[in-house]
Amino acid sequence: MAFSLPVISSIVIFLFTFISLSQSIPFIILHGIGDQCSNRGVKRFTELLSNFSGTKGYCISWRWNMGFLVYATCGTGGNCLQQVKEMKELRNGYNIVGLSQGNLIGRGVLQFCAGGPPVKNFISLGGPHAGTASVPLCGSGVLCIIADRLIKSEIYTEYIQDHLAPSGYLKLPNAIPSYLEKCRFLPKLNNEVPGEKNSSYKERFTSLQNLVLIMFEHDTVLIPKETSWFGYYPDGTFNPVLPPQQTNLYAEDWIGLKTLDEAGKVKYISVPGNHLGISRRDMKRYVVPYLVDKASRKRSIENDSGVQSKKIEQTATTIDKKTSTKAIFEGSSSYFWPSSIKSFVAELLGLMEEPLPPDT
């Protein structure tokens, strides 16, 4: 039975695509504190990355706990690690793409939890890796200003640490002793507590093939924005912002960031836009190359006309130069507090006589 040339070409393309997908490393998306996998921005982001890279992507929902974030990574019942362990698609390894606070969840899975499949590449978009000096995701309204001041004054109390997850990575430079003693998440994640350094955290972190740290140049959610690169304020003062290489975490190599960097495995990337406002163009340039195999990554970096790039252009033929620079997460709920935080703040301020309106 003879086949025409178009039929043969179609079969070859199908087999090539099938083999490529079957051999590629899948990735997972870990969303931010105010988002869900079902939200439009996250769904579109996941789909675009899958189409652009030719690899399979999965958004992993992590359970909002209002308290200790370790619960979301290694705790019992509905935690992220359990979902990862149960996915047979990830058993040979996977890549992590973290969005905002989702980066801390991802690092918790990587550093804290034994027994999971290996993480190959970690791509971080707007992650508060070194902490944040202001309560995130609220805004500039009167309620937020009052809440920010009140929470800062009580941030390291047991009640706040138990009920407000962002308190687990709020690092006030003028309260470092209290932070190290009472903050329940970030000091552990960054191996900061004197006398309690855990070599396993460093060993697991340095197992990464690549760590891609993307900072948004006009980020007004993370204070300072350089925390996306592990940069932060010196202990005791809010000025200046230290680059990552001048921090104690890097210099003393508490989690292996210096080790990875000296091996050429850390990529410090700055893109235009506010928090998570990444464009399709920057997704292709800075995220996609680390979701494909090494050979395809080299072709993508050296020459944008490689096999992967052709597939990208076929998938995105309707995207012109103007729309290719549009922010993917424009209007995403990543910018807003979930109702659970709003209710908590209102309760803290004694404003719960009337129910809060639902999120819009």
Describe the structure.
By secondary structure, the protein is an alpha/beta fold. The chain has one domain (5-348): Alpha/Beta hydrolase fold, catalytic domain (Rossmann fold, 3-Layer(aba) Sandwich). It is built from 16 helices and 6 strands. A 6-stranded parallel sheet has the order 2-1-3-4-5-6, with helices on both faces. Helix 2 (40-53) crosses helix 13. The longest helix has 19 residues, at 5-23. The model is unreliable at 11-22, 299-323, 331-340 and 350-360 (pLDDT under 50).
The CATH top-level class label: Alpha Beta
Gyration radius over CA: 21 Å
Number of helices: 16
* Helix residue percentage: 25-40%
Order of helices and strands: HEHEHHEHEHHHHHEHHEHHHH
The domain tally reads: 1
Terminal residue distance:
60 Å
- Count of DSSP E strands? 6
Shape: globular
Mean of the pLDDT scores? 78
Question: Short summary of the structure?
Answer:
The protein is of the alpha/beta class.
Break the fold down into its secondary structure elements and pairings.
Layout: H1 5-23, E1 27-30, H2 40-53, E2 57-60, H3 70-74, H4 80-86, E3 94-99, H5 102-112, E4 119-125, H6 142-154, H7 158-163, H8 176-182, H9 186-189, H10 199-205, E5 210-216, H11 248-251, H12 257-262, E6 266-271, H13 280-287, H14 294-302, H15 307-315, H16 339-348
Parallel strand pairs: 1-2, 1-3, 3-4, 4-5, 5-6
Helix pairs in contact: 2-13, 5-10
For this entry, give a set of tags.
6 strands; about 40% helix; disordered C terminus; about 350 residues; Rossmann fold; alpha/beta; six-stranded parallel sheet
